[in-house]
Please model this.
Amino acid sequence: MNTKVLDTVLLILVIIGAINWGLIGFFRFNLVAFLFGNMTWLSRVIYAVVGLSGLYMISACGRIRSIGGRDR
Model:
């Protein structure tokens, strides 16, 4: 899989996770639990994948910074 495609897919998952946390913080509404059940195996998989996506995006930040000119 192309790194750019992987970065895009994982960024979308991180944004979905951020929106879910925003809904929890502002409205006490958990979209994942609403759609897939409260801590069912499917919702736990979704939480895990979003969390792993966030960890991966930390490395993407490093790649973006190196492209930006700091490390040229």
